[in-house]
Amino acid sequence: MLNEFKKFILKGNVVDLSTGVIIGAAFGGIVTAFTKGIVEPILGLFGGGPNPKLTIPLKDTMVEVAKLGADGKELVENGKPVMELVKKTIELDLGGIVGAVIAFLITAAVVFFVIVKPTNKLLSMMKKEEEAAPSAPPADIVLLTEIRDLLKK
Fold first, then answer.
1. What does the alpha-carbon distance between residue 112 and residue 119 come to, in Å, rounded to a whole number?
2. CA-wise closest residue to 115 among 26, 10, 12
3. 71-122, pLDDT tens digit by residue?
4. pTM above threshold 0.70
5. Distance CA 95, CA 145 (A)
6. CB neighbours (10 Å) of residue 54?
7. Strand runs (DSSP E) across the chain, as ranges?
8. 77 or 51: which carries more pLDDT confidence?
9. Which of 82, 3, 95 is closest to 44 using CA atoms?
């Protein structure tokens, strides 16, 4: 079953792709809820908080942003916003990548076990029935067999 699942994931069949898109859209909410409600908190244990903050800092930069007042609105002086320099770290978000991979695998598993596996089973059962059913010989073969039998007599 796992080999069949691996073949399904790795092949680029148009029918499988369209099925995946349909099921992915239908189960998108469930997968998102599962990822956010269960997977991210577990990842958060390793990242130190409720959300997975598994990041790798790359570079610190200074960014100019509008200064905010106590009420949360931009401070304005002489008709222009007051600006301040803020340190910002550019980082790789590993937690988001892990969450996206898990969401993809959940969607792929749903597609495989709900659509592909039952369809393959049904097709193999139909193929076995076709092979087991005796096929009637063509009319000319039947006629030639009768003539042979009469000549033998």
1. 10
2. 26
3. 888 888 888 888 888 888 888 877 777 777 777 787 778 778 887 888 888 8
4. no
5. 75
6. 19
7. 55-66, 76-77, 80-81, 83-93
8. 77
9. 95
